[in-house]
Write a structure and sequence with these properties.
- This protein is an alpha/beta fold.
- It has a domain of about 25 residues.
- α3 packs across α4 and α4 runs parallel beside α5.
- The chain is globular and about 55 Å long.
């Protein structure tokens, strides 16, 4: 469902408009590329390259730009891309780990690299798929707070999926609760009370 929001997946029912771009019909490649420049995506499985450094993985966020072959590793990337990637790693408190291989980082650190990659082009919309699912409770809370802080700092809209009701209530303004693929409830997050939670998971 999330991949439909920036045209990664095609759907045949309903209508989606993301940042003013209608995705109801198949759109030109150039239009989709332009939309994706404004959307950052953090996948549940990170989708990082373990043998490469944290910095190279963040530079991958420039894939799709002109000359994007230079984004394959930070050694080939233009100075401006490397500088933005370093700043993005600094925003997630990982600048000191920029040369560290991703497969040598903890799960929480790897998630921070994925966030830095998603934020490196200053997106207007940041989408995160179960961002705390693979983390222990403390690390999950840190990651959700980081998402919230970065989205407020950069005035970026944050859209995330979660099975953690407390995270949904604490870090969102609005909740859309799905049950068996259909909208069960939608409204301000502070109105999602224990009775609704119990009914959702019944």
């Amino acid at each position: 469902l999330l991949k439909c929001l920036d045209g990664q997946e095609i759907f045949d029912h309903g209508e989606i408009a993301t940042l003013g771009t209608s995705l109801r019909a198949k759109q030109p490649v150039a239009l989709l590329k332009n939309l994706r420049r404004s959307v950052g995506f953090v996948f549940q499985t990170h989708s990082l390259v373990g043998r490469l450094s944290a910095l190279s993985n963040v530079v991958h966020g420039f894939m799709g730009e002109r000359g994007s072959w230079r984004a394959s590793t930070h050694h080939l990337a233009p100075y401006s891309w490397r500088l933005k990637a370093l700043r993005s790693l600094g925003d997630v408190q990982l600048q000191d780990f920029c040369e560290q291989r991703v497969d040598e980082l903890s799960g929480g650190q790897a998630q921070r690299v994925a966030i830095a990659r998603a934020m490196v082009r200053d997106p207007r919309l940041l989408i995160a798929d179960e961002p705390s699912a693979s983390l222990d409770p403390a690390a999950g809370e840190d990651i959700m707070k980081l998402f919230s802080d970065l989205s407020q700092k950069n005035q970026t809209t944050l859209l995330f999926t979660t099975h953690d009701i407390q995270h949904a209530r604490s870090y969102s303004d609005r909740i859309i609760a799905l049950q068996q693929g259909k909208v069960f409830w939608t409204g301000p997050s502070n109105l999602f009370d224990p009775d609704l939670s119990a009914a959702l998971f019944r």
